[in-house]
TrEMBL record:
Boundaries of every Nitrile hydratase beta subunit-like N-terminal domain copy: 9-102
Disordered: region residues: 109-128
Superkingdom of origin organism: Bacteria
Protein name: Nitrile hydratase
Annotated InterPro entries: CN_hydtase_beta-like_N, CN_hydtase_beta_C, Elect_transpt_acc-like_dom_sf, Nitrile_Hydratase_acc_put
Species: Bosea thiooxidans
Length: 128
């Protein structure tokens, strides 16, 4: 199924397959493939979600060179998970804010971890 996703999706690629400018792009790609393989959503649902995000971004004057492709990828995943009831706008916004605070609190050159968020409650269920 991952091969079908890669073949049917107009992602940045070279002769050997998808290319990623940053590690997070590969992680986002892998997450979508894993969720699709688990049946969370179909290839058609994914294509519709991603296509909608790309069309919306282009209509709003987004990058036409594809440099924001994986940002659209993440937006599509977020909206698809919300539409399926697996996440909420509130939980996504809270998690994004926590990552931003963690990034601000992380010394330069160190990995950004949610544990670095100074406002994150202690414990495994800190962000649901």
């Amino acid at each position: 199924m991952a091969a079908a996703l890669a073949a049917d999706t107009p992602i940045p690629r070279d002769a050997e397959g998808p290319i990623f400018a940053e590690p997070w792009q590969a992680q986002a790609f892998a997450l979508v493939v894993a969720l699709q393989n688990k049946g969370v959503f179909s290839a058609d649902e994914w294509a519709q979600a991603l296509g909608a995000e790309i069309r919306e971004a282009l209509a709003a004057g987004g990058c036409r060179d594809g440099s924001d492709y994986y940002e659209r990828w993440c937006e599509a995943l977020e909206h698809l998970l919300i539409a399926k009831g697996l996440a909420s706008h509130t939980s996504v916004d809270a998690l994004a804010a926590s990552w931003a605070r963690a990034a601000e609190a992380t010394p330069h050159g160190k990995p950004i971890r949610l544990e670095n968020d100074p406002l994150r409650p202690a414990g495994p269920t800190a962000i649901a």
